[in-house]
Amino acid sequence: MAQKDYYAKFAALQDVAQDLTSELAVMKDDISHVLEENAELKIENEHLRSRLAELDAKKTPELPEARRTLEKLYEQGFHVCTVLYGAHRENNEECAFCLDVIYGERNSK
């Protein structure tokens, strides 16, 4: 091989190496950005989970036994209000009167 061929091949390899180096630098920046965003999202997720835990802890106390029984009947598809007591609820549609009987006093506190 002639000296010009060696020099041309070396120059071509040097160009390829420079292209790879610049491409690796761009990839490194992209990876840094993704890792940073991932860390931020993990922290935000932790904060949201702790906030949800706080909200769950603040939930109102459990229903008394009688209201839990009415709630079970209501969930089984029966009216528990004085207007339609014992009748089946059509397509399990909610009834404002039943909900007031079960949860009304608790919500007004």
Characterization of the model:
The chain has 109 residues and is mainly α. The protein has two domains: 59 residues; 43 residues, no CATH class. Helix content is 72%, strand content 0%. The protein has three helices and no strands. Helix 2 packs antiparallel against helix 3. 6% of the residues are buried. GO terms for molecular function: metal ion binding. One of its GO terms (biological process) is DNA replication. InterPro entries: YabA. Keywords: Coiled coil, Cytoplasm, DNA replication, DNA replication inhibitor, Metal-binding, Zinc. This is DNA replication initiation control protein YabA.
Q: What structural category characterises the helix and strand content?
A: mainly alpha
H and E order: HHH
Q: N-to-C terminal Cα separation, in Å?
A: 95 Å
The total strand number stands at 0
Work out the strand percent: under 5%
Please give the domain count.
2
Overall outline: rod-shaped
Mean pLDDT: 89
List the keywords.
single chain; 109 residues; mainly alpha; 2 domains; metal ion binding; DNA replication initiation control protein YabA; cytoplasm
Summarize the SSE layout with pairings.
Blueprint: H1 3-57, H2 65-75, H3 96-107
Q: What's the gist of this structure?
A:
The chain contains three helices and no strands. This is DNA replication initiation control protein YabA.
